Every structure is written in C-alpha cells, then in structure tokens.
Amino acid sequence: MNASASPIERSFELAATRCDDLTPLVYQRLFAEHPEAQAMFRKDGGDLVRGSMLALTIEAILDFAGERRGHFRMIQCELSSHDAYGTPQELFIEFFRVIRDVLRELLGNEWSPDTDEAWKKLLLEIAGLVGSPA
Ligand code: HEM
Questions:
Q1: What is the CATH number of the domain that holds 119?
Q2: How much distance in Å is there from the Cα of 113 to the middle of ligand 1?
Q3: How far does residue 82's CA lie from ligand 1's centre (Å)?
Q4: 2 within domain boundaries
Q5: Mean pLDDT value across residues 87-98
Q6: Confidence label for 134 from pLDDT (cuts 50, 70 and 90)
Q7: Cα 33 to ligand 1 centre (Å)
Q8: For helices 7-18 and 89-107, what crossing angle results, to 10°?
Q9: 77 pLDDT exceeds 50?
Q10: Is residue 23 part of a domain?
C-alpha cells in the first residue's frame, strides 16, 4: 500500500482489498435512496454505462483529492451533460456521497477519523465546485 497516498486514495485501496467491484454496491445504494435515479438510465445501457460512469467519477475524485492534473474538471462538464439526462444538481452531488457511504460501510473499523474528515472536506469542496460557475 502506498503510504503517501491521501486518506481518500487509501480508502479506495482498502475497499479494493474487500471488494472486487464497487459498481453493484454503489448503484444498489443509490437506487435504494433515490429510486427516481434508476429511471434516468437507459434500459439497454445496462451495467457498462453504470460501471464506466462510476470508474470515471472515481478517477475524478482521486485527481481532485490528489494532484489535480485535470480529470477533476470532468465533474463540471458532466454536470451540464447530466442536465440533459434529467439529473438535478442535488442528485448529481449525491453520487459522491453514496460512494463515500459505500466505502465507509466496507471499511468498517478501518474507517478512521482522518478518513472521515478528508471525505467530509472533499464532499464540501465538490459541492462548492458544482455550485460555482465553470
Ligand atoms: C445520482 C447522480 C447521477 C445520475 C442519476 C446519473 C445519470 C446518468 C445517466 C442517465 C447517464 C447516461 C447513461 C446512458 O447513456 O444511458 C450518465 C452517464 C454518465 N455519467 Fe452520470 N449520473 C449521476 C452522477 C454522475 C457523476 C457525479 C458523474 C461524474 C462526475 C457522472 C459521470 C457520468 C459519465 C462520465 C457518463 C458517461 C456519458 C457522459 O459523458 O455523459 N455521473 N449518468
């Protein structure tokens, strides 16, 4: 494990040791909490679209929490394309919180106060990014 990784990155690394694929966990939780989100996805798009949406979101999170080389800019771009999918801004942001909650549940007692703090800060920053003009 990379000792210099941010708590955010470490939380994904630890989750990967417990679970091969976060996709089902994330979407089960999202659709349980926001049933209206399920209808926004095309029926034929299936797991591929959902899997790649999650993978790209995680890439953006890691970039935003780390070096900010550019992947994180995807967040603002996707906010406007999601307008077209009928995804309101509040729901769009919820996706990040759902990912955090899935990791927290998977990590159990390895979810440290540092990790918790780092995620709280990240979620606030993302809300600020999304709320601010591009
Ligand atoms: C709960 C919140 C969200 C909902 C309901 C949602 C819904 C959708 C839907 C309906 C699609 C189109 C799938 C299709 O072609 O059938 C999509 C695609 C996609 N979503 Fe999301 N989304 C959410 C949050 C996010 C977030 C936070 C990100 C990343 C910051 C993201 C990134 C993407 C990407 C990269 C695609 C692929 C197509 C594209 O470039 O637009 N989504 N999403």
A1: 1.10.490
A2: 30
A3: 6
A4: no
A5: 96
A6: very low
A7: 17
A8: 60
A9: yes
A10: yes
Q: Which domain holds residue 18?
A: 7-129
CA triplet 75, 31, 119: central angle to 5 degrees? 45
User: What pLDDT does residue 125 have?
Assistant: 95
76 in a domain, yes or no? yes
Regarding the beta carbon of 92 and ligand 1, being less than 6 Å apart is answered yes
Instruction: Please give the share of the chain, as a percent, with pLDDT higher than 70.
Output: 93
In the DSSP assignment, the letter for residue 109 is G
Q: Is 76 in the pocket of ligand 1 (CB under 6 A)?
A: no
The SS3 call for residue 45 is coil
Answer whether 30 contacts ligand 1 (Cβ < 6 A).
yes
Q: What is the dihedral of CA 23, 47, 68, 13, to 10 degrees?
A: 30
Specify the pLDDT at position 84.
86
Residue 49 within a domain? yes
Number of domains, the chain: 1
pTM for the predicted model, two decimal places: 0.93
Q: pLDDT category, 90, cuts 50, 70, 90?
A: very high
Is the distance from CB of 74 to CB of 81 less than 8 angstroms?
A: no
